[in-house]
Amino acid sequence: MYIGELARLANASAKAIRLYENLGLLGQVQRLGKYRIYTERNVLQVQLIRQAQSLGFRLSELAPMLHAAHGEPDWALIAQHLHEKRAVVKTEIKKLHALDACLLQMQAEIHDCLQAQLTAQQAACTSFPVNQHVD
């Protein structure tokens, strides 16, 4: 199949497919004259690349995972990278939860301040709430 058909089947642009090929992510692509001839295997490769990108992997990270032995994906290495990516995500989630807690605290302090203003206790709102969250 030609690049247009591959692009349609893999839901990728021809430009992206050419980039993947230039980076060596598709392995050796057959040619017929000046045309590249792609196979069903290339469809699966492009789909895997796009899925990996959607999970936060950079193209530069993918080459060792995709062509370890005989041009086949190294599933053990992929599993290891997924495990590492999950650890990074979990750390980021913890940071976001801490940030959310600080935002909630500040929001509550401002709410209390506004309520105090309504009851004529304006002295309660003389300064901006100080957040102890330091990243």
From TrEMBL:
<dbReference type="InterPro" id="IPR047057">
    <property type="entry name" value="MerR_fam"/>
</dbReference>
<keyword id="KW-0804">Transcription</keyword>
<dbReference type="InterPro" id="IPR009061">
    <property type="entry name" value="DNA-bd_dom_put_sf"/>
</dbReference>
<keyword id="KW-0238">DNA-binding</keyword>
<protein>
    <submittedName>
        <fullName>DNA-binding transcriptional MerR regulator</fullName>
    </submittedName>
</protein>
<dbReference type="GO" id="GO:0003700">
    <property type="term" value="F:DNA-binding transcription factor activity"/>
</dbReference>
<dbReference type="Pfam" id="PF13411">
    <property type="entry name" value="MerR_1"/>
</dbReference>
<dbReference type="InterPro" id="IPR000551">
    <property type="entry name" value="MerR-type_HTH_dom"/>
</dbReference>
<feature type="domain" description="HTH merR-type">
    <location>
        <begin position="1"/>
        <end position="68"/>
    </location>
</feature>
<keyword id="KW-0678">Repressor</keyword>
<dbReference type="GO" id="GO:0003677">
    <property type="term" value="F:DNA binding"/>
</dbReference>
<keyword id="KW-0805">Transcription regulation</keyword>
